[in-house]
Design a protein that fits this description.
This protein has 71 residues and is α+β, with helices and mostly antiparallel strands. Helices cover 23% and strands 31% of the residues. It contains two helices and five strands. It has a three-stranded antiparallel beta sheet with strand order 3-4-5. A hairpin with a 6-residue loop joins strand 4 and strand 5. The chain is globular and about 30 Å long. It starts with 6 loop residues before the first helix and ends with a helix.
Length: 71
Amino acid sequence: LFCPWSITEAEERLAPAGFLRVHRSYLLNPARVAKFERLKDTALCMVDGDGGPRIPVSRARLPEVRAALGV
């Protein structure tokens, strides 16, 4: 929440650990995704089950996220 890095810098630093940028303000660790829900032209990833955070996936990043999740 209170990281001094820009989202671009965080993306570059965390990419080797497997994190993906899924939205303009969100990075996601695909290994933590419990559920992937496709909406019309976007999607949501649920982390740590149904009670966990819901991470939006932008339309532009959808193919990369789907490939990483194998869906």
